[in-house]
Amino acid sequence: MANRDYYAILGVSQSATQDEIKKAYRKLARELHPDVNPSADAQERFKDVTAAYEVLSDPQKRQMFDLGGDPLSSGGGAGAAGPFGGFADIMDAFFGGAGGMGGRGPRSRVQPGADALIRIELDLADTAFGTTRDITLDTAVRCTKCNGAGTAAGTHPETCQTCKGRGEVQSVQRSLLGQLVTSRPCPDCGGFGTKIRNPCPDCAGDGRVRARRTVTVKVPAGVEDGMRLRLAGEGEVGPGGGPAGHLYVEVRERPHPSFVRDGDDLHCRVEVPMTAAALGTEVSLTTLDGEERLVVKPGTQAGSVTTLKGRGVPHLNRSVGRGDLHIHYDVVTPTKLDAEQERVLRELAKLRDEEHPEITVSNPSATNGGLFSRLRDAFK
Known about the structure:
Layout: H1 6-10, H2 18-32, H3 40-56, H4 59-66, H5 87-95, E1 116-122, H6 124-129, E2 131-142, E3 158-159, E4 168-175, E5 178-185, E6 194-195, E7 208-219, E8 228-231, E9 247-253, E10 260-262, E11 265-273, H7 274-279, E12 281-287, E13 290-296, E14 305-308, E15 325-332, H8 339-351, H9 371-379
Helix pairs in contact: 2-3
């Protein structure tokens, strides 16, 4: 690497600005990264490009190279990052950070909190028409004793004497060509720049404690099984009393004894005796809205469907409109007959010329297949 022209590798002039160097590196790194281009030649070029960016993005290393030296050679020393540059430098080049141009300063003790997830079970009527539930959570909340500061009453964080509040320390490496200065987080304060000498006795300096609290969840009409409701700011409070994350409430709909839900539509099965299907009748059906009188027309066949418009589930996030209720008829044939019943049926068969009927064979999927078959299996 000692004889390499880092400017030529990146395709920039010797007078290129830091923005031009960073732009050139981004373009080449995206083309040559092993995840994008796995060829051996591309990997070697990626190493050269990364090394060139490490040198030219650092003012001290660039000056050393301009004077005829190579900071990545065995004599110049590569520093702790090695010959291919540090991970932070690569990330900075892609996302617009400071790169190798200097320190990043102390990091804040206040960090955003994590999101939380909880599941609730609801009946079909609750998901259909909406409901309100109080749920109990055990999450991190802001410490009330220190109000998130993490310090004992009357005290404050003290400036770290090791890094003097910068949050990082520098180390100097000497070489024949000069000095190389590298930075790393301060090991004494963890990069915060301050130290808590007297932590809060309740939260031990974290600024938050675990507590049980109750949250009211408003479930809108029309939600479905598996949907998640977001309650902004009701999740975990972050370290240092940072802003809370969100709470996600996942809805689990309990199976209904009578209805199967398909989106906003409902399906149910009604068993009708053979004689009632032939002669017609009226039955009482309990829907989500109450009792309904259902007229079974004479000659109703097994698998036929009656639809009650607007008796399904309300449409989510819409003030009007509902799905439908589909009623599937299952004609029940008697399995045991007494002598008189058998005589009457045989007389009926004789009157209808059905004593020796012709049987028609067909594909079952063409008659009572599809949705009704799946619903029937679900009921079973």
